[in-house]
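Long-time lurker. I teach an intro course on protein structure, and each term I like to show students one example going from raw sequence to a predicted 3D structure in token notation. This year I'd like something fresh instead of my usual example. Would anyone be willing to generate the tokens for the chain below so I can use it in lecture? Attribution to the forum is fine with me.
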Amino acid sequence: MSATSRQSEALLATDIVPGSISVPRGGSAFRRFLAFLGPGAMVSVGYIDPGNWATSLEGGSRFGYTLLCVILLSNLMAVLLQSLCARLGIASGRDLAQSCREHYSRPVNVALWALCELAIIATDLAEVIGTAVALKLLFGIPLAWGAGITIIDTVVLLMLMRRGFRWLEAFVMSLMAMIFGCFVVELVLAQPSLSGIADGFLTPDTSIVTNPQMLYIAIGIIGATVMPHNLYLHSALVKTRDFEQHARGKREALRFATLDSTISLSLALFVNAGILILAAAVFHSAGRTVVEIEEAYGLLSPLLGAGIAATLFGVALLASGLNSTVTATLAGQIVMEGFLRFRMKPWVRRLITRGLAILPVLYVTQVYGDQSVGRLLVLSQVVLSLQLPFAIIPLIRFVSRRDWMGELAIGWKTRALTWAIAILILVLNVRLVMEVFQGL
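-- Reply from a regular --
Happy to contribute to a lecture. Here you go:
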């Protein structure tokens, strides 16, 4: 495909241009792998957004290290599902939204698009809250004003997109490195129990399913980790690489894309687990249950005895909120174009999505006060979990089709494992809904 035709396709589709990033045809395998670095980081920022902070902080402070196994399980599920997304994009040349449009009827596509948009708004809600809380903690800006300021990220995002997709990826990876570094220092200061961490990761507790409060947080963790819009996003991002279109080239592209996403998701696992471990070591051990991020910020320095602890916490939260904005915007463009063949200017789309996310924050802060946004944050992650099956089930069906995937179609073992994941999420969601209705 020529550069001119790629630019034309970009104008008709999304700002993600298929085949726009060159891949060396020769040289070392490591040099070729470097060309594939980026999409994994773009996807993984959704796994460390402020929604993860809310669920992990409450889970760690309320239940100690117990829910670490849920974070590990969620991350392993994410690694597998994101690898399937890369497989779909590379083997078929279609992203997940385009595949749905070709396979399902118009009413089904509209319904799937609406559910995905709801998930994106829930994600954006978490980003608005996280960024606004960080601005309040670091600079004393009122929460409602901070929520309004988050609209400015539209300008920053569009500036980066104009400079090229590699600049966008570099921006995301830089913020990820900042978040990672902040939590390394936090964990060194907290000195958590290594035996408690090992038990949390390797010894699942049956009370996770039987305890309604623990189940609610566990499902929130799954919703905060495996995000529906990331499945659509990753299947489109891998197409930006100009890999060779024969069987061997596709296999190599899949191998590098999977390695890229696995490395990035491993960093996300460290951050997610780090938040819960920090909460368990600092708050649970002191008998404090923390629901609000602001409360965690205020207690870190007194309990750790280090003034820099709270500042690092706030900086990491701000970087997390800014970072996740990028992926939500790109995913929104992909699903709208993929499902409906409808394109909207990026800045218009961004303002609409962000506006819909800001309204609930303003309402909750005005009616119930700033202390209620933490509950809204956790609720947004449960909403994401409830949307997951509507993205996972089509994904499994498409990557199983040999007429679309060729020799890269998944085998029966992988199909069985992915269907088990889908069923697990469905069962947990049904259990959650039952608990909610029983509590009414």
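Some talking points for your students: The radius of gyration is 21 Å. The mean pLDDT is 80.
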